[in-house]
What does this fold into?
Amino acid sequence: MTQLDHRPTPPADLLIRGAHVLDPRTGIDAPHDVLIRGGAIAQIGEPGTLEHDGEVIGGEGRHLFPGFVDPHVHLRVPGQEHKEDLDSGTRAAAAGGFVAVVAMPNTDPVVDSASILGSLREAARREARIPVGFLASVTRGLHGEALTEMAELRAAGALGFTDDGKPVHRAGILRKALQYQKLAGGIIALHEEDPTLSGRGVMHEGEVSARLGLAGIPSISESTLIARDASLARYEDGRIHIQHLSARESVEAIAEAKARGVRITCEASPHHLTLTHDALLETLDTRLKMNPPLRSEDDRQALIAGLRDGTIDCIATDHAPHAREEKEVPFEEAPMGTTGLETAFAAVYTADVIPLALLVSKLSAGAALMGLATPEIAVGRPANLVLIDLEAEWEVGEAGYESRSENCAFAGRRLRGRVLTTVAAGAVAYRERSIALQAA
It folds into this structure.
């Protein structure tokens, strides 16, 4: 994978025996032995037919998938390492079955110059346990006023650009960015929110916010900006990616734009696919506060339908760690954001909202959107794999987290589907404790 960085790790030499291999892209859906040699997939054979004099992992009763790729995470580096860092964030990603992630630039300082990006990539080559790519900001300091040096940032390795956490509110600035995109290349990823509509809202605007007496964020805050930016992208023939869709109107706006030939893609997050604002009636848990907010059941069903019919291109976590003390305040005062790397697969799988093959496909589809190679289980390909026990049940947070932060929306919930082993960029990046003992 180009433009991705991680620390040097010894290539894997191991045999995964008898796992049910499911790769929707290569068409494999049956039990197989998979031999990894020198970090690449060397052989795929019938169960029990391959031999290996090194490490053997028993895969019987488990599933082997192409590794997941998350195009939207916050690793909080530089400047907020008390929330997350390159080591902890990529460890959490590997524990969730991810073999590559793309980090957002809303850090301190903002990733808006080639020098900051360069130092960040150097740090990733020392600390990251799996490959990491970086988006740079669209505007300097995320202020929405002046564009960054997009060509220079691309040359320094930025996969693309985003002001995530904030919208590019001024249409003229986004138009200029789309014009520069023709020269610089790279995706422009957009956090869609009209601040004149969302205001000081802290949750979805609807019957639940009314009952709780909390300021709401209307769904049109998101969808109206999507419609605007799709029009700009069409006019400039630019390529845009819409982050963390949350509302029915947004899915409709994307579908309409795609029908008009706009080069637009989008993502949905596990929490929006599986939870609604009704959860806040049970408890005003600040771990359930994120932007965009959990919305209605109708919105959730629209997102699920959008995944099924292809309107929504991929699943992304928007992993957003916060320190415990930042979330242990009244709901209105807490920062937005939930962690999600360690629970992404299990949360959606447990909710049973889309078929397993589609879930596996959507969890890695973000790679191509970022200009990266999509993991595949095929001979000769780098080993980017995740071994999962679909039957294993576990309580989120019971054994702690690999992430530095604990603000997970699924905390305390029982989920099915446990990641046992992750092989990323040809190296073993994660082993669940029982697998580590068994392999030893």
About this structure: The two ends are 30 Å apart (CA to CA). The chain has a mean pLDDT of 97. Residues 14-64+380-439 form a domain with the Urease, subunit C; domain 1 fold (CATH 2.30.40.10). The chain has two domains: 14-64+380-439, 70-369.
